[in-house]
Amino acid sequence: MKTAVIGGGASGLMAAIAAARNGSQVTIYEKMNRVGKKILATGNGRCNYTNINMSIDRYHGNNIKPAENILNFFDLNKTLSFFEDLGINPYVGELGKVYPGSLQASSVLNVLRYEAERLNIKEVTDFEVVELRKNKGVFSIIGYTKAYEADNVILATGGRASPQLGSDGSGYELAKSFGHKIVEPFPALVQLRLKGKYFRRMSGIRFDGRVKGLTDKNVIREDEGEILFTEYGISGPPVLQISRSVIEELNMGRKVYVSVDMFPDLSKVELYDILSLRFRKISYKSIEDGLVGFINNRLITAVLTEAGFEDLNIKCGSLNKKEIYKIIDILKEWKFEVAGHNTWQQAQSTAGGVDASEVNPETLESLKTKGLYIAGELLDVDGDCGGFNLQWAWSSGYTAGYFSSTSV
Ligand SMILES: Cc1cc2nc3c(=O)[nH]c(=O)nc-3n(C[C@H](O)[C@H](O)[C@H](O)COP(=O)(O)OP(=O)(O)OC[C@H]3O[C@@H](n4cnc5c(N)ncnc54)[C@H](O)[C@@H]3O)c2cc1C
């Protein structure tokens, strides 16, 4: 059986290995000059390749049922064993994130490539598939200057996130040409642009905090971890984590806000006790000087101005309870309106994609065309930050590869 894998990313490499282990002759067609470029960029170059707290609740999409089957078929334990057999010693970091013991994404790509080589998987790089056809049971894989043939095809071209690494959404057109419906893609796991006047001054400030996405009525999603103020707004893992839900609301035309808590481990009352004692001790200092050493210097003017103080020279000792609470409200619940989000270039994942109800939920074979399988981020399945997207790529890639080589 000749299998063509379109796209040599995480899901494509996994699909190729699974199919070749089952006896298929596999060729990967990759538009970049080498396979796996995105893998090298994952986890800040360390590749957070799965998460020990695996759960279907960490995945999103219009129809999540196939994802549940697939994630159970090639699950966390199978993934860990698969990589251990190839030489990857798992290191479990914060929040259950799993990295290779080397803490190098290149290790993950290297072992996949060694295995592909051992299985005689061919790689045709610098080859962008621009058209796919099926005629009399044979697929034609068509590039700008050449065409190849295969008995079945695994479409693993990724979504739209980070097109500089290869995934520019061209897979949607290929899937559409077989009659598949595309759920409108939008960036997920991306930084948020906020309205506000202090960002230039605050840019670069990092702290461990809690961030909430809010509409006028509800908290949409919240998360905790390292937050970074930037020139345009806000970034950091918890911001990426809430971004999908925030953008979904924005896309529905709603006003969305982000609220930042810079002291998530302290209640407002505890913070009041600390600040009132502090201000009593240094009652002779101005409120501006009084916060030096308590929060980042570049935050002080912004926090006090937002809290409603016009004169920053008033003395700490003159503040009453209500005024101290005004400062606390900013430190615990600084609210900004969301203006938008960064572009596909900065996004780490794609929400939306090929409608997942149009593939067999056990095998990922297209329900439109026999012999066509769809895997990875190209499908309308996306995961949370923390190793869940790569787990989906491994699980869906393995499933598509395995079943493509067992079907006739
Ligand atoms: C900066 C960054 C960091 C990330 N970090 C993590 C992390 O630590 N943990 C985690 O779980 N997830 C992470 N992700 C997400 C994760 O990398 C992706 O979800 C995953 O790689 C998707 O795999 P894929 O195979 O579906 O698509 P991709 O990895 O995008 O691969 C698709 C491949 O198809 C090729 N291709 C596209 N169109 C064509 C065509 N027409 N013809 C031929 N080839 C084509 C592309 O060049 C590409 O090589 C990160 C993403 C980014 C951008």
Explain the overall architecture.
With 408 residues, this protein is α+β, with helices and mostly antiparallel strands. The chain folds into 3 domains: 2-186 and 351-406, FAD/NAD(P)-binding domain (3-Layer(bba) Sandwich), CATH 3.50.50.60; 192-263 and 335-341, Elongation Factor Tu (Ef-tu), domain 3 (Beta Barrel); 278-330, no CATH class. It has 13 helices and 21 strands. The protein has helices spanning 10-21, 37-41, 65-73, 76-86, 105-118, 170-176, 199-202, 237-251, 268-281, 287-290, 297-306, 321-333, 388-406; strands at 2-6, 25-29, 50-51, 59-60, 90-92, 97-100, 122-124, 131-135, 138-142, 147-150, 152-155, 182-188, 192-194, 206-214, 219-229, 233-235, 257-261, 334-341, 349-354, 372-374, 382-383. It has a 6-stranded antiparallel beta barrel with strand order 13-16-15-14-17-18. The radius of gyration is 25 Å and the shape is elongated. The mean pLDDT is 97. Flavin-adenine dinucleotide is lined by residues 6-12, 29-32, 37-38, 41-43, 47-48, 128-129, 156-158, 161-162, 166-167, 170-171, 348-349, 376-378, 387-390, 393.
